[in-house]
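Hello, quick one for you while I still have it in my head. Could you read through the record and tell me how the tokens relate to the sequence? No rush at all, and the record is pasted right below.
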Amino acid sequence: MTTFLLTVYILMWPVIVAGVLFVLCRGFMKEWLEARREGRDII
């Protein structure tokens, strides 16, 4: 395995984690804003 491929392999995990975190936060914000508009608690 070359150094370049090993570097790409190691660096792709933070990108995947950041993408998942972004999707989760976007979903939470969407639900929170919708609940706020309707005047109800999110929980």
User: Anything to note?
Assistant: The radius of gyration is 18 Å. Residues 3-38 form the longest helix (36 residues).
